[in-house]
Recover the amino acids of this structure.
């Protein structure tokens, strides 16, 4: 029996400049996420809950197919299902079977969910301003938007391929 030997590529180690950029991003993003989680805690919302509610609030009739919600939120279907159970228990969302094709289901924002995001949004946007936006110049904002739109597009492609969405 012949075995195929595969030659593993040598790692492409990060240069000092690349490492500095990566570590700066990781430290800032983790601290920012933790701080914003704390800022939402008095609303009884997590950042993940808030993000899901944002997607639902922007969808027509405040509902979206679960598979589309998973893709737009970049959350695995199983993780989204878990979050939905928690959010259903809180009364913010419900699931409905798609009446047209009966293959999928919709995530639907309830009135209680709408009230929760409307109540949390002013504090959340102030947190974004105070912790992030107010520390950037207009050029910084444009550069970051351009950079992360490019990174996000690639990540969405990879996520969709990996999760087969």
């Amino acid at each position: 029996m012949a075995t195929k030997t595969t030659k593993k590529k040598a790692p492409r180690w990060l240069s000092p400049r690349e490492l500095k950029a990566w570590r700066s991003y990781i430290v800032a993003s983790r601290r920012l996420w933790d701080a914003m989680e704390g800022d939402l805690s008095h609303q009884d919302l997590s950042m993940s809950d808030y993000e899901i509610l944002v997607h639902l609030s922007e969808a027509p009739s405040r509902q979206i197919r679960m598979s589309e919600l998973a893709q737009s939120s970049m959350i695995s279907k199983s993780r989204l299902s878990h979050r939905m159970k928690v959010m259903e228990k809180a009364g913010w969302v419900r699931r409905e079977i798609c009446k047209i094709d009966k293959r999928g289901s919709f995530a639907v924002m309830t009135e209680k969910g709408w009230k929760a995001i409307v109540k949390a949004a002013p504090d959340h946007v102030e947190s974004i301003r105070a912790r992030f936006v107010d520390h950037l110049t207009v050029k910084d904002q444009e550069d970051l938007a351009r950079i992360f739109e490019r990174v996000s597009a690639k990540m969405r492609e990879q996520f969709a391929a990996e999760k087969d969405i």
User: Anything to note?
Assistant: The mean pLDDT is 90. The radius of gyration is 20 Å. Helices lie at 16-41, 47-58, 66-73, 77-90, 111-131, 138-163.
